[in-house]
Write a structure and sequence with these properties.
heterodimer; A: about 110 residues; mainly beta; six-stranded mixed beta sheet; four-stranded antiparallel beta sheet; globular; B: about 110 residues; seven-stranded mixed beta sheet; 11 strands; about 0% helix; about 50% strand
Chain lengths: ~110, ~110
């Protein structure tokens, strides 16, 4: 079946450090891939997405590339800020008529000044 | 601005009581979803609805019920049969005709008194 595996957190970084959050997936066919971000006490917001192999999604300095050969969609940012502290969820949507999202368990990021 | 409104933000329930969480959207989306979020477990799908007057069970439907009498509204009732209802509940909607993923509300935190 379809599944998403994220690196376990929490991840603690100093401001301006480089961030990588690993995400790998298992799916039949060609899913779309997403990163959502959840700030404390809030719902999920779409951060970026990629719909086919080799696509790069980017937003707010974050990037992720859809790698079909390694079934991965790792999230990166070159220089994190305190305001990036949040929980990050990797997800896939394997089309069909239902549009259900399959989420990873989330990775909590804390950025210290 | 279009969006999803979940109310209330915080809700308290006495043991043995049913409680209903509200979810309203003005995005004109056909599909709506309810998720439960527990620490370290990511999001788990409770119920979803693709169209008015129709809904399907998700992965953890036991102890919950829903209705979809209007396109804009998808209330979730947490019944007394749900033995561990304390969690953060997220509602989402999706436009089946678009290439965008689900859009989330800000959530309701339910606690047992």
């Amino acid at each position: 079946g379809n599944s998403v595996t994220q690196m376990e957190g929490p991840v603690t970084l100093s401001e301006e450090a480089f961030l990588t959050i690993n995400c790998t997936y298992t799916a039949t066919g060609y899913p779309s891939l997403f990163w959502y971000v959840q700030y404390p006490g809030e719902g999920l917001q779409l951060l970026l997405k990629a719909t086919k192999a080799d696509d790069k999604g980017s937003n707010k300095g974050f990037e992720a590339t859809y790698r079909k050969e390694t079934t991965s969609f790792h999230l990166e940012k070159g220089s994190v800020q305190v305001s990036d502290s949040a929980v990050y969820f990797c997800a896939l949507n394997y089309g069909g008529s239902q549009g259900n999202l399959i989420f990873g368990k989330g990775t909590k990021l804390s950025v210290k000044p | 601005d279009g969006g999803i409104t979940q109310s209330p933000k915080y809700l308290f329930r006495k043991e043995g009581q049913n409680v209903t969480l509200s979810c309203e959207q003005n995005l004109n989306h056909d599909a709506m979803y309810w998720y439960r979020q527990d620490p370290g477990q990511g999001l788990r799908l409770i119920y979803y609805s693709q169209i008015v007057n129709d809904f399907q069970k998700g992965d953890i439907a036991e102890g919950y019920s829903v209705s979809r009498e209007k396109k804009e509204s998808f209330p979730l009732t947490v019944t007394s049969a749900q033995k561990n209802p304390t969690a953060f509940y997220l509602c989402a909607s999706w436009d089946r005709g678009s290439n965008q993923p689900q859009h989330f509300g800000d959530g309701t935190r339910l606690s047992i008194l």
